Amino acid sequence: MSGDVPGAHAGQVIPWPGQPRSAALPLDAQAPAVERAEHRRSVWLRESRIIAAGYLVDGMLVGMFAAVGAVHWSAVLLCTLPGWITCAVAGILIGRGHSRNWKDPAVSDAQAFAGMAICVAGIVLYPEISFLYVLSLATIFLGITYRMSRQCIHLSWGSTCAVIGLITLWDDPLQIPFDTRAEQLIAGACGAATLARAVIFSVVNRGRNTLLHEREQQVADMLEQVERLADFDELTGLPNRRSVLRMLEDELDRSERDGTALSVARLGLDHLKTINNTSGHPAGDRALQAFAAAVQAHRRDTDVFGRLGGGEFLLILSATLNEDAVRTMEQLRRAVADTHRHATSPGLHFTFSVGVATWQDGETTEQLLNRADDALDGALHAGRDCSHVG
After folding, report:
1. Which domain holds residue 80?
2. Which of 161, 195, 225 is the last residue of a domain?
């Protein structure tokens, strides 16, 4: 069976007038979640590499101080080895996907706390270059403030400041090696490195903000999809049974309030079961899509068209009485038949039957639909491809 209209393909959802085209696309046409997850993982790995590079820079600066005799060489190991181990473990967890279901899948908090512990240990063990560890703490807090909770930030900041305060009051105040020209140059290099690291972390934060924006967009897309599925038929893009019946209730309220006419037409696609049995359900789906698109293209702008289920549809004809409704539906049937005849191979087209009912004063929605349903049965018993009035 061939009943497609131009541009209608199997699996495509046809948008109804006013519906965003993107909302009518099937889920498999949207950006794959795997690609988004891979992008997030690459950002997290890059951040871990930046942190590891920071430990290397600190180790080089401490090594320069050690070379001029300002501190023992063991300080170099404290600056680099624990940090590299932490970054390596984080990289393995992220790269292999072990952390993807964690509360902190980027392992950022663990790396930040490890960095703070290293800095505090450096202040305790090597007070002669304690200023360097304080600068490192500043960059760590710069990196974590945008992602940690306010309570966690206050706790980590308060505990770190308390430890540093106790150390400086108990032992020696914070020191900057500044006795020789070489120490002065190295101290200046430490300041420059801190500024450079702050710039790098601002770039990392911007990448993080991009990820957050992508997540927000993903959530918005999911909510839009849920709302669309709640109100629209996934196959045809038309208002579904729940939605079109709600619209009918609104139209009935308006007609009762304003005293205007209102008719409904129940449309049944002829021989849909035969199409499904002989050509398969995909052919039947294409027929439903083509039929829905054709009716949408030829219906009046003031009418509302929705799918009740299966091969049955509902057209709400506002400000229309029986005679006008039948005339409108006959024009629609001819237009749809011509559309399918030109859109398919010669001799291959399908038709639909119509049951029309006009609302009577005091009638409920159910009663109106039952009369339209009885009229549709009459059209089917009359041989299909015709309109009956209920």
Report:
1. 29-225
2. 225
